[in-house]
Amino acid sequence: MPSKRSLVETKDVKAVLVDVTECEIERPKKKQKDYYSGKKKRHTLKVQIVADASTRDVLCISVGKGSQHDFKLFQESKVHFSPQIQAIADKGYQGIKKLHANSVTPIKAKRGEELSALEKIYNSVVSKCRIYIEHINRYIKRFRIFSSRYRNRRKKFALRFSLICGIYNFQHG
Fold this sequence. Notes:
Layout: H1 5-9, E1 15-24, H2 32-35, E2 36-37, E3 42-52, E4 58-65, H3 70-77, E5 86-88, H4 96-99, E6 103-104, H5 117-141, H6 144-147, H7 157-172
Parallel strand pairs: 1-5, 5-6
Antiparallel strand pairs: 1-3, 2-3, 3-4
């Protein structure tokens, strides 16, 4: 798999897709609160995947605890893009415009209000662009080690996830 450095140096990548997936883990003996995901109602590890939009290859991954917000994981992963690269993300990355000006996220409706027709069209265009990162998540979750409860050592989780991403890149490259 390429490294994070390739996102800054490369001229081949025009757009990247960013998304987070969660994998259930065994209940930790210590610091359970850090791993508990209120969204999934279980203990999880989060994995942020950055993929090339045109080739659909996984460029890099970052691993965080289940209670961590998606955008916080993005900030702590220290993934930097070249200013020419367009970043396409979901609603969990609403503050990414401050870090990377050339980024696209769907528009969130304000509380008690509905989106206009133009905003709904914009959101559907963005979702059509970023559906491929969801397909990558689905492909990786086909491997039973990540689709069911992860029972191995958490220290080796990132290594195993990057190996599966390498298999994905090999088969789709």
